[in-house]
Design goal:
The complex is a heterodimer of chains A (285) and B (134).
Chain A lengths: L3 H56 L16 E6 L9 H16 L6 E6 L1 H9 L4 E5 L8 H16 L5 E11 L2 E10 L14 E2 L3 H76 L1
Parallel strand pairs in A: 1-2, 1-4, 2-3
Antiparallel strand pairs in A: 4-5
Chain B lengths: L3 E7 L2 E8 L1 E6 L2 E5 L6 E4 L2 E8 L2 E8 L2 E5 L2 E5 L2 E4 L5 H17 L3 H22 L3
Parallel strand pairs in B: 1-9
Antiparallel strand pairs in B: 1-2, 3-4, 3-6, 5-8, 6-7, 7-10, 8-9
Helix pairs in contact in B: 1-2
Classes of the chains: A alpha/beta (285), B alpha+beta (134).
């Protein structure tokens, strides 16, 4: 049986760990609040863009744009949004497992697809698998602004336009609640699922609908990606919060168990001491 | 005097939201002035200043690309980034302009050249808006 001092040491160190995880949980909680605010600030922009895109789609049936037409797929791009660090529970492994399964299902060789990675965990994982990583962005701040990811979204959309790949799928954790995040797959390009709206007024286009689409569609596709990054960040903070909460709970449980063992050992030592004293006194009589 | 609501939104949130009497933006086909009651229109914007006239004052907002959506009672500007004159970091803009100029002189690569040119345009736009000389 471990000595009293050993048990005491374990209790102290577990307590310290639980203090750290508790602090990390609270940090994540406040980051989650901010991430939710950021995601909300993005909603009007996305809504407006969607309005205009669908208004154009409704206004003219003959308008087509390379970004809206499906072409034979020679190469697929997978844009995967993960976190930079661990301590986020199943956040990264859920995404990576889903993506790997989809890739195995759709492709037979590594030449048929490329990876675009946002987040260090994803980049490291796919590099280890020997897959081609065309672009990666790491060390994103906790509350990314559009300027932070502009470069990679711009490249992602640009490489679709110049024919490097023919479709883009995006994977991220969709934030449902603080304890639930769902891995989501979204087809970013080509933009085939634009619903023509009936409610919005028809517009005049200056100079032409085609010229507007030229500006609008890349901006729309980039916004989709930015939206997913914001959503992913909120999920990351939520996942981190939940993971740290369960770590704290586990530590507390461990401390309770250890305290019980400690008290028993202490009591046993006292009892033994008394028995020895009594035994010693009896021997003297 | 009739007014029109103006909303400038970026992915990072709304930048401007107010009633003005006239909006002037630089579109792909030239400068475009919008008064209340304009026919619904969509036009792409270049890198430039959007002028918002209100009573006797004019406010400037630096807009980098995006487009202008006009309805009779409302104008929405959707841009990837936009800053009001008071929010512009002048030192940063000047720094960016210097960097872009240096890159323009050093680089002969076409892609980089174009990017540097755009960066310079954005920086100059910010500086102009900050100083109010449009």
């Amino acid at each position: 049986m471990a000595s009293l001092r050993d048990i005491k040491n374990r209790i102290t160190s577990t307590k310290k760990t639980s203090q750290i995880t508790k602090a990390m949980q609270m940090v994540s909680a406040s980051k989650l609040n901010r991430a939710e605010v950021n995601a909300k600030a993005f909603v009007p922009y996305m809504g407006k863009i969607q309005d205009v895109v669908s208004a154009i789609a409704a206004g003219s049936n003959d308008t087509s744009h390379p970004m809206m037409t499906t072409r034979p797929v020679k190469k697929t791009a997978y844009l995967v949004i993960t976190s930079d660090r661990g301590l986020v529970g199943g956040y990264n492994s859920n995404i990576l497992r889903t993506v790997t399964a989809k890739i195995r299902q759709r492709h037979t060789s590594n030449d048929e697809f490329v990876i675009l990675s946002i987040g260090r965990k994803g980049r490291d994982f796919f590099a280890k698998q020997g897959m081609t990583i065309l672009e990666s962005k790491i060390a994103l701040p906790d509350h990314p602004t559009f300027a932070d990811i502009k470069e990679i979204t711009h490249k992602a959309v640009g490489m679709f336009s110049d024919g490097t790949y023919d479709e883009v799928y995006m994977y991220y954790n969709h934030y449902v609640s603080a304890i639930q995040q769902d891995v989501t797959e979204k087809k970013v390009l080509p933009l085939t699922d634009i619903q023509p709206s009936t409610s919005t007024a028809s517009y005049e286009f200056d100079p032409s609908a085609e010229a507007i689409l030229e500006v609008l569609l890349p901006q729309y596709a980039e916004s989709l990606i930015f939206g997913a990054v914001l959503d992913g960040k909120a999920s990351e903070h939520a996942a981190s919060m939940t993971a740290m909460k369960s770590a704290t709970d586990n530590a507390n449980e461990l401390i309770n168990g250890l305290t019980l063992v400690y008290n028993r050992a202490r009591q046993a030592a006292i009892t033994q001491e008394i028995t020895e004293i009594v035994g010693g006194a009896a021997a003297l009589e | 005097m009739k007014t029109i609501a103006v909303n400038i939104v970026t992915p990072d949130g709304p930048v401007y939201d107010s009633e003005v009497s006239m909006v002037i933006g630089v579109t792909a086909t030239g400068e475009m002035g919008v008064l209340p009651g304009h026919i619904p229109t969509v036009a792409p914007l270049g890198i430039g200043a959007v002028r918002l006239k209100k009573d006797n004052s004019t406010e400037l907002v630096a807009v980098n690309g995006g487009f202008l959506e006009i309805r009779p009672e409302k104008v929405t500007i959707l841009a990837q980034s936009a800053e009001r004159a008071t929010d512009i970091d002048l030192a940063r803009a000047q720094e960016a302009a210097k960097r872009a100029e240096a890159r323009l002189q050093a680089n002969k690569d076409e892609v980089d050249f174009k990017r540097a040119e755009l960066a310079l345009k954005r920086a100059m736009n910010r500086i102009n808006v900050y100083e109010g000389n449009i």
